[in-house]
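Note to self: the last two entries modelled the partners one at a time, which told us nothing about the interface. This time every component goes in together.
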Amino acid sequence: MSWGFLHHLLNGMNKYSTGIGRIWVAVVFIFRLLVYIVAAENIWKYEHDEFECNIKQPGCENVCFDHFFPVSHIRLWALQLIMVSTPSLLVVFHVAYRENREKRQNQKLYKSPGEIDGGLLCTYLISLILKTGFEIVFLILFYKLYNGFKVPSLVKCDIRPCPNTVDCYISKPTEKMIFLYFLVVTSCLGIVLNLSELSYLIFKYSIKCYLKRYIKKDQGSEGDCHKSEITGHNRPLCVEYYAELLWYKQKEALYMQSWRNLGLRCRTVRGCTAFVR
Amino acid sequence: MDWGALHTILGGVNKHSTSIGKIWLTVLFIFRIMILVVAAERVWGDEQDDFICNTLQPGCKNVCYDHFFPISHIRLWALQLIFVSTPALLVAMHVAYRRHEKKRQFRKGDQKCEYKDIEEIRKQRFRIEGSLWWTYTSSIFFRLVFEAVFMYAFYFMYDGFRMPRLMKCNAWPCPNTVDCFVSRPTEKTVFTIFMIAVSSICILLNVAELCYLLTKFFLRRSKKAGNPKHHPNHENKEETKQNEMNELISDSCQNTVIGFSSS
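The predicted structure of the combined assembly is written out below.
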């Protein structure tokens, strides 16, 4: 059980994401997880051993280290990676629930269980909000716990049993600071990607909703969903087909334009199958 | 999850690369990543423990080590390898997007779609032309930029590529100028020079690939410009117009059957 598990999780999540979601997964894997495992972990590996205080008093070093590093940077980083990846599970569970429901009732309830619409859209939006929330919370936590993102090379400590104010030296402070800034930048990038995905989804679905309502108003109330004069079949045109109808109307307008460009015009009234110059 | 995961991600891009791109990827994995993991990491493993300063003053060693090695060679190489591999993802994303579009066309039952099943789409190898050419070329360009930037950063930070045996340090709290000794300086120098040499080879491979792609592009353009001279102009126009009309008729017939309002 290690980071490979998270890797599998996020890979599974990739199927149900939008394009921006997939970019976010790639950023998390490569710039955060991979950098953490191959580089950052080793920097903080011996931080306690290499933490040195200018005193021989037993216990002073331990107490001072604990005072200045209540939770080590690297552990906070690992926690952040785990918490930020977990909201994606909500979406995976919801899709599994949908598939289960279809199997139990033995009929097709959804156009596609993995398609982001209806309840799954709400779940997806909630997962995005949670991800962004966790990122922001951890950044604030880092900032508050360590007074900014700088790692000092020297800290002064005067907690018992240190007899008076002693100088304590942190190992590799510059390298740690560089990687902390790297963490902050990738976190901010993650936040930006999440927010843009959120706004993209909200925009896309509000346009869809608006169009559906507009077409519904144009065609009359839902009670008019009966014999269709458009298809010529006795198939009721209901709300979910209005979007499709709009698509066909747009295509028709395009074709009419192309025919006009070629110097043709429609001879028939319904559906152009015959032309005249 | 480690370098193996990167290998899996980039392995997919290999299919759509040129031959020089495939050589580059092999060099990257065998002569850089593998060497880093199995050899270089061991050499730098005890760098701080065995960094010894000629003083008993607590804290002096830490401060001197931090002053001379703001970021360890190993970490810099790891970052360089990650950044240099990342542009290939642009190509992977573009290919995935194209595949997705083709799958959508196939599912809609488009007559223009020439594939027999989804598996064929998944296994198909895309040629590097059109927008994919631009993505691929920009990925090579970014690779070059990252390699150059990291090599320069290396040179700038460590004043060349040699690892000295002895460094003189007088940062506080060291009482005066103390001698500090680096562990395994010769071995580190050898590996540094090796990694720099392989970096340079990778840069050359990228430049060669870039030239190859540009040459191909210009050759293709001159061929396209040359071809229409063989057919008389007006015949070609009539043919394309007829083709367009036929396409429109067949499309509109399909749409009339499915459902189409003329209002």
